[in-house]
């Protein structure tokens, strides 16, 4: 159960272990009971750093139908501050490309001008700042 939180099983290249979790959902398919999942949540909860004002940040979803060819599956959806690095990286790459106007003509064709790009860069900067503040 705790493997789903390890860096090897992340969809994005990030390490959530050292970050602060804002919310987490465990979605289980197959032969599992709410007691099994709740017990495992209680087991992994002490190893996670949660926001102090959101102790009830765990949600559970159960589906009795197992995935095809498997007895069960577990998916974890989390919002954690580790994604700050991803937003910062995207901002850096976008700033570099935008300063050279690389590929910008593709966006202008669809009505995205400099004003929208500046706004998008500003939003990325604010999001990265908010996630950094949460740590």
Global Rg:
19 Å
Largest sheet: 4 strands, mixed
| First-to-last CA distance | 25 Å
Tally of strands:
4
Q: Strand pairing plus helix content: what structural class? A: alpha/beta
- Portion of residues in beta strands equals 15-25%
SSE pattern: EHEEEHHH
Q: How many helical elements?
A: 4
Residue stretches low in confidence (pLDDT < 50, at least 5 long) are none
The average pLDDT score comes to 88
What share of the residues lie within helices? 25-40%
What would you call the shape?
Answer: elongated
SSE topology sketch:
Elements: E1 20-30, H1 34-44, E2 49-50, E3 58-63, E4 72-80, H2 84-99, H3 104-108, H4 114-134
Parallel strand pairs: 1-2, 1-3
Antiparallel strand pairs: 1-4
């Amino acid at each position: 159960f705790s493997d789903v939180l390890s860096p090897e099983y992340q969809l994005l290249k990030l390490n959530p272990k050292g970050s602060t979790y804002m919310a987490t959902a465990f979605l289980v398919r197959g032969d599992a009971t709410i007691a099994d999942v709740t017990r495992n949540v209680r087991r992994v909860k002490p190893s996670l750093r949660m926001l102090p004002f959101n102790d009830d940040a765990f949600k559970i979803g159960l589906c009795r139908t197992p995935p095809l060819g498997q007895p069960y599956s577990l998916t974890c959806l989390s919002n954690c501050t580790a994604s700050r690095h991803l937003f910062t990286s995207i901002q850096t790459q976008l700033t570099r490309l935008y300063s050279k106007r690389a590929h910008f003509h593709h966006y202008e064709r669809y009505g995205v001008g400099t004003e929208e790009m500046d706004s998008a860069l500003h939003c990325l900067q604010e999001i990265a700042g908010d996630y950094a503040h949460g740590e």
